[in-house]
Amino acid sequence: MAHGGPRGAAFDVAVIGAGAAGMMCAAVAGQRGRRVVLIDHASKLAEKIRISGGGRCNFTNRDAGPANFISANPNFCRSALSRYTPRDFLALLARHRIAWHEKHRGQLFCDGSSDDIIRMLRAECDAGGVAWRMPCAVEAIRREAEGYTLDTSAGSVTAAHVVIATGGLPIPQIGATDFGLRMARRFGLKIVEPRPALVPLTFDAAAWKPFVPLAGVALEVDIRTGSGKRAPSFREDLLFTHRGLSGPAVLQISSYWEPGNPIVIDLAPGVDLAADLLAAKAGSKQQMVTVLAGMVPRRLAELWLEAAHPGLGSQRIADLPDRVLRQVAEGMKRWTVVPAGTEGYKKAEVMRGGVDTRELDQQTMEAKAVPGLHFIGEVVDVTGWLGGYNFQWAWASGVACGQAV
Ligand code: FDA
To answer: Among 380, 52, 341, 64, which Cα is nearest to 196's?
Structure first.
């Protein structure tokens, strides 16, 4: 691809946003000999990487593949993900002697801290001779006959390619902005409506009241939303809180939840609760609560019966009609709740939606109708599940673009 740019262009590539995707892209392009400038308005480098994974950065998922991502155009991410895989990222960590471990279901974390990842990306940028403008705000992007001129708080910057890597809307308190979405609109690109994802769900206080005593109970559940065969479902841990539900199960399903729709939770996954309760009845002198506590966590059994079936727990299971046992089982296997909303961008881990991928070339991340303008990372409508997938998209889209600009 030509990289001449406007006459006197200082740079071949200007990357806006020095986060996960932006640093990766700048490093790859710089190491290919491109003259790259990396611009970020924040005063602290890559805060989102620093706070990620509880400070240890869940930097990828060993099993990451297209099925772990949500997008209006699900095939778009295939090419970049297959060209830069979790193994490639592990090879990069090995070169920088960064130790890591697997925590849970393919989720890979640093042994030390997220700072290891930030230092590594910075060193990779240095190896590519990347120039930095930080903190530096970009006020405007102007398309010239060839290439672009950026008006910034540190003067104008010219470049043949502009890469927008300004991330999503979550956690505005550490520098997230709608810059990428605004620029996409300004250049006439379509946006898939953005909304908070991987976010706790909230419930109407009155409707939630019976479940308040369950706060603190944690257990593995099956959780789903929507209907039909393709309705997404996850087996993950659920946490009851004073205000609603949290934990990985709820974060995962929140990315698929549509306002007004119910979510359905199986509190005894893998167990045929109705059959087990009916079988336990025969010749038993035990109280209902004691029997149920053998099948689900004790606190859940006690508090659930109190909340949903007052007075039932202390009765002998043998005295209860089959119909009632089936009702208890059904209530726990298909607990259906309608969230009132989400905790919003202040608490979300990612943004769903973003620049419509039908506007972009899947090999280069370049806007098809705006040559030289690229979008990578979270600002693009590719949203990963919880578990390291969002960083894998940032790395893979950053590399694809860095190899093309
Ligand atoms: P990123 O947000 O990393 O970088 C964007 C950069 O652009 C920032 O440096 C910002 O300052 C800059 N910027 C924004 N507007 C600008 C403007 N107008 N001008 C100049 N610069 C601008 N994912 C995962 O896979 N594993 C995990 O463990 C976690 N954990 C996690 C925890 C928490 C609390 C959050 C909020 C998020 C996560 N994530 C995660 C998600 C992950 O952090 C996120 O998807 C990636 O950082 C996205 O990478 P980007 O490079 O696209 O944006």
So the answer is: 341
Q: From the CA of 58, give the closest atom in ligand 1.
A: 28
CA–CA separation, 67 and 373 (whole Å): 27
Measured from CB, residues less than 6 Å from any atom of ligand 1 are: 16-22, 39-42, 46, 48, 51-53, 57-58, 137-138, 165-167, 170-171, 175, 177, 179, 349-350, 377-378, 388-391, 394
Residues 39 and 142 in one domain: yes
pLDDT band at 7 (very low <50, low <70, confident <90, very high): very low
Higher pLDDT, 228 or 25: 25
Mutational pocket test of ligand 1: of 390, 392, 393, the residue with most ligand atoms within 8 Å of the beta carbon: 390
SS3 368: coil
Q: How far is the CA of 253 from the centre of ligand 1 (A)?
A: 21
- What was the pLDDT predicted at 243? 85
Number of domains comprising the chain? 2
Assess whether 37 and 150 both reside in one domain: yes
Write the pLDDT tens digit of every residue in 314-359: 999 999 999 999 999 999 999 999 999 999 999 999 999 999 999 9
Residues 186 and 213 in one domain: no
Parent domain of 215:
201-342
Strands (DSSP E) along 75-217, which ranges? 100-104, 107-110, 131-133, 138-143, 148-152, 155-164, 191-197, 201-202
User: In this structure, what CATH number is given to the domain that contains residue 283?
Assistant: 2.40.30.10
Residues 192 and 205 grouped into a single domain:
no
The rounded distance, in Å, linking the Cα atoms of 155 and 298 is 64
Residues 43 and 72: beta-carbon distance below 8 Å:
no
Distance from Cα 196 to the centre of ligand 1, integer Å: 13
Measured distance CA(67)–CA(119) in Å, rounded: 31
For residues 331 and 257, state if they share a domain. yes
Question: Which tens digit of pLDDT belongs to each residue from 221-237?
Answer: 999 998 766 778 999 99
Domain boundary among 326, 342, 358: 342
Q: Give me the phi and psi of 387, to 5 degrees please.
A: 125, 25
Shared-domain flag, residues 327 and 296: yes
- Do 189 and 219 fall into the same domain? no
Whether residue 151 is found in the same domain as residue 263: no
Compute the distance between CA of residue 108 and CA of residue 270 in angstroms, rounded to an integer.
27
